[in-house]
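thought: fold this chain, then report.
action: predict
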Amino acid sequence: MTGMNGMDMLRVGIYGGTFAPIHNGHVAAAKAFMEQMKLDYLFIIPTYLPPHKQIDRSDDPLYRLKMCELAFEGVDGVVISDVEIRRGGKSYTYDTLKELQRENTRLFLMCGTDMVLTFDQWYRFEDIFKMCYPVYVRRENDPVLGNRVVEKITEYYQKYGVMFRRIVTDPIPISSTEIRSAVKTGKDISAMVPEGVARFIEENRLYREEEDA
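observation:
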């Protein structure tokens, strides 16, 4: 463990998202993030209200928090944080980083492909660049999209001197939208989400059309 003597830096990762629900792709990306960035801790932070996307009107942030806890049960170094849920309102990454900053802590921020492409539209994004080391993971095998990501990362480096590090892992082509649709149509989701998450969705009858009425 890194010491607290003011010289050693604690390496802390931040992986935020709606996680509605969290799935095996998220878990695989998180584990690769921890390993490749040599993190001491990884904060998994479900948003309260994502600024850039709509969420289901029946959404309960505390259910999403609980599913994150179930997904990472027994994984050393992972901290499931309710910092954005407690704060309420729109969940801005800048506010979260400000809250988690410490003198001898180095923050690493995980981004998906869509986040990389829109990073310069985020609230106070230039400040975010100064507060953390951004890293990204590819969630798909689309070469055209891959070229766009490389172009955007080059642009960030040229304009702001910021280098995005890449987490290399096999993309798992699963989306939370796909899982919610599968639940609504009665399909089996056991191959897409951790066992505890599948059980929680079933027990609480989440993402069923009749429950949203």
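thought: worth noting. Residues 108 and 133 are 5 Å apart (CA to CA).
final: tokens above.
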